[in-house]
Amino acid sequence: MNIKVTGKVKHNGEWYGPGDVIPNVDEDDGNRIITIRAGDLLPKTQEEIAAEESAELAKKVEEERKAAAEKEQKEVEKQLKALRKKATDLGIQGVAEMDAETLAAEIEVAQQK
Fold first, then answer.
1. Of the candidates 87, 86, 84, which has an alpha carbon nearest to the alpha carbon of residue 76?
2. Tens digits of per-residue pLDDT, 85-96?
3. What is the pLDDT of residues 34-81, one digit of tens each?
4. Model pTM above 0.85
5. Contact 5/36 with Cβ under 8 angstroms?
6. Each residue of 83-98: b (16+ CB within 10 Å) or e?
7. Which residues form the DUF7210 domain (predicted)?
8. What is the reported pLDDT for 112?
9. Is the pLDDT of residue 10 over 80?
10. How many other CB atoms are found less than 10 A from the CB of residue 57?
11. Residue 15's beta-bridge partner residues?
12. Would the CA dihedral through 99, 100, 105, 110 be positive or negative?
């Protein structure tokens, strides 16, 4: 939040006088300055609003990307587990060390026998 100073106030070790603007004040300090009537809250600029919206959108996109990646990873693990079970059922040894591609090839060979 940005505060326009209406009196004399000290913020983070620096003195501000009437008409000064204190930028990027955290909520607790801003409320303190407003409560003691030493300043007023300035409305957000269009740039600040746009930056906040952009940050929120980026956060949402990243959360969706992570969720999709986790879902894909779970599906891959599920498929690998199924391949390992099928390979074990076919009597293939060492399935725990094999990747999905190797398992699929070994299963195909075992099924052709």
1. 84
2. 999 999 989 989
3. 999 999 999 988 998 999 999 999 999 999 999 999 999 999 999 999
4. no
5. no
6. bbebbeeeebeebeeb
7. 1-33
8. 86
9. yes
10. 10
11. 10
12. positive
Q: With b meaning 16 or more CB within 10 Å and e meaning fewer, what string describes 19-33?
A: ebebeebeeeebebb
C-alpha neighbours within 13 Å on the C-beta side of residue 70: 6
pLDDT at 41: 95
Helix/strand/coil (H, E, C) string of the chain? CEEEECCCEEECCEEECCCCEECCCCHHHHHHHHHCCCEEEECCCHHHHHHHHHHHHHHHHHHHHHHHHHHHHHHHHHHHHHHHHHHHHCCCCCHHHCCHHHHHHHHHHHHHC
* CB distance 32 to 39 below 8 Å: no
